[in-house]
Write a structure and sequence with these properties.
Blueprint: H1 2-38, H2 41-59, H3 65-100
Helix pairs in contact: 1-2, 1-3, 2-3
């Protein structure tokens, strides 16, 4: 019976990890919408903490500071990725216009 107990525990653990990833994803999406709407990276980054905190308390009735920090770090990476894509787009258009002349 020990195998089945460990198996049930591992499924519960992976289910918990999956729910955390889903919570991080939803938080990142909402904060990215804030970033696109305001065009201000600082507001988006700082909005991540309350968004995650509220969602965690709605779904799980608890939250931890390390999870809030992880959510904010994920949002910082998303902001950097969006800015990199914007910069690459501007450089490509600038190269295209300078090549035409």
């Amino acid at each position: 019976m020990t195998f089945w107990d460990e198996f049930a525990y591992s499924i519960g653990f992976f289910n918990y990890i999956g729910l955390l990833f889903e919570l991080f994803f939803i938080t990142s999406c909402l904060a990215t919408i804030v970033y696109i709407a305001t065009k201000n990276q600082y507001i988006s980054y700082l909005a991540t903490a309350p968004i995650f905190f509220v969602l965690a308390h709605i779904f799980y009735q608890t939250s931890h500071i390390i999870l809030v920090i992880i959510a904010m770090s994920i949002q910082a990476l998303v902001i950097l990725f969006i800015q990199k894509q914007d910069l690459l787009g501007k450089l490509a258009s600038k190269a295209k216009t300078s090549g035409v002349e």
